[in-house]
Amino acid sequence: QQQKQQQQRQPQQQQQQQQPGHLLPAGVIVLPMPSLSHAMERGTVKRWLKQEGECCHEYDLVLEVETETLVEEAYRLDDFAGKVTLLIEANEEAWLAKQLVPEGSELPVGQPIALLCEEQDQLQQAVQQEAAVARVLDVYEQAEGTSNVRTLIWQSYLKESNKGPGSSCGCM
Fold first, then answer.
1. pTM (whole model) above 0.70
2. Is residue 24 exposed (0-12), middle (13-18) or buried (19+ Cβ within 10 Å)?
3. How does DSSP assign 93-129, residue by residue?
């Protein structure tokens, strides 16, 4: 009878781990649309630099994000008109399990754009979380009330900025 009770509790525990309030199992990481400035509300996934199933080592470039919002790097270069493209770099090692949005998608800051995992053998488990994170509109707001949401640690670098036609600057 104890064994039967234990078996009944086990599925309940698994369900709790995967509910949106508890969001994701341990080892699954969300990459949200990054906030590249305080004023930024939306960004566009310009290009994925890592593909599904690839390992993102620390300091690897993961994707390019384009925005029309002023970013600190563009301000320092006195280049704050038009669009800027930034390179998003992983600051921890993780495996890219699922790109949730295609290149060219414009999304609000905080919306999940990719699922990652700590270990290669967690790839399938991470991919299975797509439906759970699809309901989350802002990972940053979700994370405030949820201790089980883990977001990828990242930083950005200015790739190019356009003052006008044909104007750009190199990587920093």
1. yes
2. buried
3. -EEEEEE-S-TT-EEETT-EEEEEESSGGGHHHHHTT
